[in-house]
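Need tokens for this chain, all 473 residues.
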Amino acid sequence: MTTVIEKQIAGPSFCMMQPSLLDSLANKYNKPVPRYTSYPTVPYWYEPFSLADWLPALQQQFEASNQSHGISLYVHLPFCESLCTYCGCNKKITTNHRVEQVYLETLLKEWRMYLELLGARPHIREMHFGGGTPTFFSPVNLRKLVDSIFEQAVRHPQFEFSIEGHPNNTTTPHLETLHSLGFRRISYGVQDNDPEVQHIINRIQPLEKVRRATEEARSVGFLSVNYDLVYGLPRQSMQGLRQTVQDVIALRPDRIAFYSYAHVPWTSRGQRLFDENDLPSASEKLALYLEGRKLLTDAGYTDIGMDHYALPGDALHEAWLAKTLHRNFMGYTTQQTKLLLGLGVSSISDAGFAFAQNHKNLTDYYRSVESYQLPVSKGYCLTSEDMLFRRYILDVCCKGEVRFSDDHRETLEAYTFPELSMLESDGLVRWDATGTILTEQGRNFIRNVARAFDLHLLRSTQAHSAPRFSNAV
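Here are the structure tokens for all 473 residues:
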């Protein structure tokens, strides 16, 4: 029997659809939906979370994967010198660089606690420094951090190290130091080049600084440069977005993350400074996305999944072709490690069948580590049902297709199949009893399709107790 996944699905592209239908879909699917960097998503985790639940999962996954696959390490460096008002990340605004020393000492104490629990030298395959602004830290302190991590750890033969940098403060010494430590990928936040938009989001960043930071990274020896762009920002215009995308295409980054602005003022106080009348409507925001997507794909970038584009030959593009992409709290990755260990305030760890998140508040994080306690504040242990539906969601986000298992079939029929029927009626998926596949237009609503497999959200929505997320469009 030929399954729906084995058939070639080619629905009409959005550029061929009537504007009225576009507006209808944008308004219909502009509902609060997670970004699915985990499943279950963080609002459904337990707080407090018992270390008696977390540690066995951590140690089991470490023993299973360390020698062969290696592990991933995420390090959160939270400090920024100024507030970007659109930002929803966990950050601490300060111009006092004396905070670097205290934070690094605490973070390395946390690392040493994990080393004692793991009982063997970690083989680090993937390491990412995020923030905040990691390049807030001096080159000397970044070297100290990496050297200290590897005093009792090993670089996996296929290691891949990456960092987020701000074009305004990423210097040549930063880049040279990071390259000498093994970093080959860097991501720069560009967001939008329109001076009016930059002013309202408090991110004044001339294009020339982006160009300089990119050229210096490449001249030093970085092999991959990513840009982050955001659509849906206050007072963002179609003309301004076109110019921004054309500007960055000319600089030819290897990857581009084209993110939807997540308006969550109930958790990000800086966003309360915006006049919500300056934000685009759902249909206007979708039009911005479609225009940016067209410009990027016309320029040779491949849409490899939710928000992400890559040039042919880039490792992310190759993984997309091979259907080996993975998605975690760092976004899309080519690595398939079974353990992601997060260090630093608010960092999240993923042990396959358990998650753990550190304290979000810096004072709580410091107090916990100084008391020689792991700074874990919340987490979750996955059930067999969670594990299966997590795989379904990952397959939607990374492969654009799902093959159904016979396990938990009744749950699938009760919750997911009705959602898929609605999505199919709008031309976003094709499905049958064996599986489902995204159509071309469905690729623009991946979050909504993934939601069809989110049992926690579907059940809580029925019970009228769903947590708040940013809107999908």
